[in-house]
Please model this.
Amino acid sequence: MEKFYFYTKITQVELLGRIARNVKELLEGIKIVPSASIYHHTHRFLQQHQYFSPEHPNDFSYWITMNLGLKKLGEKIAAVDIMKFSDIEDLRHAFVLILEDFIKETPRLRSCIPTEEFRFLSSRMFVLPTPFVARNLEEFLDCLKKITIHSLYFHVFEARLRLKKPDNDFSCWLRNAGYIDLAKSISRLDVYTYTLEGLRKKIISLVNDYLSSFK
Model:
């Protein structure tokens, strides 16, 4: 059985020097910023809010709602299901279509007050090894209890979208090891509805249940 090596990551946030004062400028920025910026603004909340699920799932919806006062548009942006996308460019396009439709239907665009502009950021990821290695399912379960949430985030979220893998790292490894049903159970999780600690507990529960079924 192939070993599973747990990794973690450090993120360095970068200022891009681009701001938006209204929906048109936000749209222009979304169209041209690097994919790492789109990823940062749609996943930042997941990384920062470890113990509760944020009301606004991405920076775009938060700014549109809170700084422009456009609640309905903010809800449309928030409703974009990130789980459906395995490519950042497809996710970018989904936001573009919503904003373009809004601009077509809105002759006058309101701007935010000074100092409340949307500032486009990006992030660089540095991947680091951890001391945790699993040689079997029991060790995998033990490691899940000990790794940091940053490691969990890397293997579940970074793997699919930023690294463009077909599935999360856990399910890929389990599937290759022959644990097909367990891999499917983890793949089917709507990971964006959990806090990171809640997600850890759910995956641990699934692995425990799977192991118990053979006792």
